[in-house]
Amino acid sequence: MGVITAVSLRRGHHFSKTNGLSIRLIKGLGVAGDAHMGENVKHRSRVARDPTLPNLRQVHLIHEELFDELRDKNFTIRPGDLGENITTRGVDLLALPAGTHLHLGDTAVVKVTGLRNPCIQIERFQKGLLAATLDKESSGRLIRKAGIMSTVLADGDVRPGDAVSIMLPAEPHQPLLPV
């Protein structure tokens, strides 16, 4: 079990999000008041390709341990800086299989849909940060470390200090792919 350390949202399309005392997750839509809330894609690049696609990126989660790793590489990153809605500690988000349900706080539930694909905006935020959020396995497979994306299955208010519990999907587990 892990814990939520920060929650963030932003109404307009900006890279970073603003920390708050709580956020409201709405089933099938995402974070109330956030620019990326909706049934269909909201990220500008995806809207340009096909605005009718389902929004698999309603809620963005990042593990706070990434910030520790980046700090060791001389980057200063705070919750919300990389555009995430929920910052966690104690959950290996990147190791979760697709379809995992995360119970957040008392009632909210999200379904993990895939990995966030780090983009050029991360590099614009801090020079060298894009490379620092990527790694490679010995096999050469790219490791994306900038968090995971999810959709909302059950409404609820989410706050710093709330617990995160994990419900894995039935096997065979499918690895997370960029969405």
Could you give a quick summary of the protein structure above?
Helix content is 13%, strand content 33%. The chain is mostly beta strands and 179 residues long.
**What integer is the average pLDDT?**
96
Q: Can you identify the CATH superfamily?
A: PK beta-barrel domain-like
Q: Any idea of the CATH class?
A: Mainly Beta
Low-confidence stretches: none
Topology, number of strands:
13
Helical content (DSSP H or I, runs of 4+): 10-25%
Number of helices: 4
Q: Mind telling me which CATH architecture this is?
A: Beta Barrel
Cα shape? globular
Radius of gyration: 15 Å
CATH topology: M1 Pyruvate Kinase, Domain 3
Which series of helices and strands comes N to C? EEEEHEHEEEHHEEEEE
Q: Briefly note the structural class of the backbone.
A: mainly beta
Q: What is the total domain count?
A: 1
Report the sheet-strand fraction.
25-35%
N/C terminus separation: 25 Å
User: How is the main sheet built?
Assistant: 7 strands, mixed, barrel
Q: Which strands sit side by side, in order, in the main sheet?
A: 1-6-5-11-8-7-13
Could you explain how this protein is built, in words?
The chain has 179 residues and is mainly β. The chain has a single domain, classed as PK beta-barrel domain-like (M1 Pyruvate Kinase, Domain 3). 13% of the residues lie in helices and 33% in strands. The chain contains 4 helices and 13 strands. Strands 1-6-5-11-8-7-13 form a 7-stranded mixed barrel. Strands 4-3-12 form a 3-stranded antiparallel β-sheet, with no helix packed on it. The protein is globular. The two termini are 25 Å apart.
